Amino acid sequence: MSSSSLTASGIREDSPISSQPSSAAILDRKPNASRRNIAWFGWALVLPACSFVLALNIFPALFTIVTSFFRWNFVNKRIPPRFVFLGNYQELLFSEPLLPQAVLNTLFFILGTVSLQVVAGVAIAMLLNQGLRGTRVATALLLIPMAIAPAVIAWLFSILLNEALGPVNYALQALNLSAPPWLSDARWALPTIVLVDAWQWTPFIVIISLAGLRSQPPSVFEAAMLDGANARQRFRYITLPLLRPVLIIAILLRTVDAFKMFDLVYLLTGGGPGTSSQTLSLYGYRLGVVQFDVGRGSTVSTIMLMIAMAFAILFYRAARVRQ
Predict the structure, then answer these.
(1) Angle between helices 59-67 and 294-322 (to 10 degrees)
(2) How many CB atoms are closer than 10 A to CB 122?
(3) How confident is the model at residue 6 (pLDDT cuts 50, 70, 90)?
(4) 270 or 14, which is more confident?
């Protein structure tokens, strides 16, 4: 018998027929037309959504960045836009006295409202997680402030906090307490806006924290109780670490939203009294829309974009390091 063996199909291994690729291999090497058609069909379905995002988000952002390098004022149409490169940035950062105060007001607003929302939201979520009667009704009622438009909330609180006819000051005076000028005093205007924003968006933290609490395994808490851990220790060493990933996302979303706050500030105080409650977004609005200084208004918007991106990157890295 020959030294060459037979394959399963009866063909010798040293035969030239056995060295040729099989029909299945030949079919695999050929481009699959149906798969390519499916891929093109998928891209065709996604194209309208991508075009929508490109038109409403990416293109305006790029246009704003490009416009920030020009000295462009709509009032004087005889003077065409003039390229100044970083001239607008240099003027705003080193020569504009209102920008530092707007930055400080924005930072105060972010720290104040996000801190209040997180502390109050986690506390309310812990209370609702106890399984008390009426928890479902209370959870549903918490969604009401988030569903109200900011214009309606501003109108509502401008009535409630009115110095002369507001029910809040009337109740304080009935209790022999001093009634502060909530919206007309430079010391109270920005803290009042912080309280109003916290009232509206604390339910957002409550809903997210409540979902995180209900997803925590009860066996861990039972083991901690058997080891003698009290309620404070269980909250510090078990509840908060397990709740941290959810809180990180919630804090990031609320920080970005608070950073671009405009509507409540504009409707409640208009940035006043004076400029005591003027934020970066309102300052950019006044430059670009009120004063028609498109170049410097775009510069403020670009600075806000860079700050928001830097904060998001640092926040994400810090969250990854902790995890």
Answers:
(1) 120
(2) 24
(3) very low
(4) 270
- The domains located in the chain, with CATH, are 95-322 (1.10.3720.10)
Give one word for 291, left, alpha or beta, with left for phi > 0 and alpha for psi -120 to 50.
alpha
pLDDT score at 1: 44
Q: What pTM was estimated for this model as a whole?
A: 0.81
Token pair listed for 110: 């972010």
Helix/strand/coil (H/E/C) assignment for every residue in the chain: CCCCCECCCCCECCCCCCCCCCHHHHHHHCCCHHHHHHHHHHHHHHHHHHHHHHHHHHHHHHHHHHHCCEECECCCCCCCCEECCCHHHHHHHHHCCHHHHHHHHHHHHHHHHHHHHHHHHHHHHHHHCCCCCCHHHHHHHCHHHHHCCHHHHHHHHHHHCCCCCCHHHHHHHHCCCCCCCCCCCCCCHHHHHHHHHHHHHHHHHHHHHHHHHHCCCHHHHHHHHHCCCCHHHHHHHHHHHHHHHHHHHHHHHHHHHHHCCCHHHHHHCCCCCCCCCCCHHHHHHHHHHHCCEHHHHHHHHHHHHHHHHHHHHHHHHHHHHHC
Mean pLDDT, range 302-322, rounded to an integer: 80
81 touches 71 (CB < 8 A): yes
Q: What is residue 268's predicted lDDT score, i.e. its pLDDT?
A: 93
CB–CB of 212/243 below 8 Å? yes
Counting every residue, how long is the chain?
Answer: 323
Query: Cα(49)–Cα(57) distance, rounded to whole angstroms?
Result: 12
